[in-house]
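Table S5 (text form). Sequence records supplied for joint modeling of the two-component complex.
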Amino acid sequence: AQSVTQLDSQVPVFEEAPVELRCNYSSSVSVYLFWYVQYPNQGLQLLLKYLSGSTLVESINGFEAEFNKSQTSFHLRKPSVHISDTAEYFCAVSDDTGRRALTFGSGTRLQVQP
Amino acid sequence: NAGVTQTPKFQVLKTGQSMTLQCAQDMNHNSMYWYRQDPGMGLRLIYYSASEGTTDKGEVPNGYNVSRLNKREFSLRLESAAPSQTSVYFCASSPSGAAPQPQHFGDGTRLSIL
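The corresponding structure-token record, covering 228 residues in total, follows.
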């Protein structure tokens, strides 16, 4: 069985400050990791993914995440946040069995203040 | 450019009533999923369908049934609604591939059971 832990339920941060949203996973098989973002009253949108290859993955809007197998982590970082980054962020893991459904963490609400 | 479309967007039911949540995707994806989102718990898988004609239970299937009507449509039915089923329901789809592919989500159905 696989699981995802997002330790921080809320992260307040000032605009233009750096931020890190933490994600740890557990799985007995190969893992594939995702970060999704959810804006109010909307569905989830893919932010970035790790399937294989380089352990550092980047999104088009300045976020990046690093897959660390030894620490079973996939933390999300951004060097300078904007007000528009205010949203809920979900870390998710999928395995390579036939189901390929996602197991989600409980989410982290990022609140960017002016 | 519709992606995944869910109907209705909002619904209020009385305990014991039945209803069907509709989901359709226009991306020619093989796999479709139903999740429920509850505060502080992330998203949990209810049912999934790996291809047309197949369905399988997820983490929280009790009280629900599904139908994969064709490749585009995957419906979720509550036969006798209970207050514990008050939640936001998301449908998602993904293509098949050698590795797990990102899932595309609808905007959700907000369901209240009184």
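Note: Chain A is about 0% helix and 55% strand.
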